[in-house]
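Morning, I've got a small favour to ask if you have a moment. It would help a lot if you went through both lines with me. I owe you a coffee for this, so here goes:
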Amino acid sequence: MNSRPSLIWRAASAFAVVTAAVLTIVGVFLYRSLESELAYRDDLALMGRLEQVRALLQDSDDLVALQQRPRLYQNMLGNQDSLLLVGRGSAADIIAINPHDDRVPVLAAVPAGQVPTRAQVVLWQAADATPVLLLAGEARGRGGEALQVTVGKRLGERAAMLASYRMRIYMAVVGGALSALLLGLLLLRKALKPLRQIATSVSGISPGTLDYRLALDNVPRELSEPVQALNAMLERLDGSFARLSQFSADLAHEMRTPLHTLLSSNGQALSQARSVAEYQEVLASNVEEFERLNRMVANLLFLARADHGDCPLALQPIDLPTLGEELCEYFEALAQDRGLELHNGLQGTLVADCVLLQRAIANLLANAVKHAAPDTRVELSNAVIQGATVISVKNLGAVLPPQHLARVFERFYRADETRTDPGNSGGLGLAIVKSIMDLHGGRAQVSSEAGATVFSLRFDPAVQAVTR
């Protein structure tokens, strides 16, 4: 069982985390803004209260009369969290309104006539750990008597309000994250429904239904490219499966002929007593068939390794005239039997794998000698075309029909079904040429017109194939 979280859960969780982060940032911003605004208002209120008390003391004719009117100051303060201390010194011997009996510390007083600022407001902590704002200032009585005024406000109410606000922010963040998670699960499950439908369709494809293609009509735009890629993959699989089936059938057909020959010849040899010469003739025939089977198996192994990239290239500079001369000398006897002339027109140097290049050109020469018209010439040449080195093998004779040109490099495909040639490669010679060129990053090409057939090996500059 797969224990990894599903894509829906991961996406919804990420959506919830992002939502929680955004809400947290917004909440912190709003909280800091509110805290700053409340602090600003409290400071202004404390500064204004100091100025009011200063004006009241300056306009009063008798301080004794002020002492006898405590309700006036209580109404001025407006709640039980404010304090007001007025005295001729550090002691509040004129007015002392301190509902919580806070032991106020000695503060630096704002000089008389100077407007207080926020920087002069002091934050102090009372004995019960409640923060208190304090502001002290000098004042003058009616007769110019020097007085000291201390105003303050306990911040318990503000702290309680901010705590409540914080709790609401926490609840909003948690609630928003849960809502985002549930909403994300719902929306993603609905959004991924087409993907589940595609998965259901693909799961029903078998080797017998590789021709099935996914419909693009109702597919969301975001899934259009993956669906097209899946269809392209199915197209390739269908083609590969068809080629594999055809390859298996062709392989069985090709191997059946030599095996049938071996069984027949050996059966006849064993049906009655034979002379030594007759047994030797049978054995010689068997050797030829075994050699044919051996070549076929070797070619198949080479193609299999080439398909899997298991044929490392030993790139080196190759002298093309020398290589052409060696190949023409090898095929000279076979060419003379057919009245053919071999012409080596190779020039310059090519960087490639010498063994594989020799094998590719040899296969092309064998094919050309086999199909060339008698008393004609097979030409081996090379040229530089658009920066690429092209080696060509040209023979004169019957042209290949267009329907064969596109398939001559397929395995076991032969335009001519003749199998009498002992050196026949079993329809794998040109397929090997194509695989060799694929290993070099080049291309094998063929053209057939006006009584001439030309097979070409094109080495692109990108694989460091050069001539000079």
User: Anything to note?
Assistant: The chain has twelve helices and twelve strands. The two ends are 63 Å apart (CA to CA).
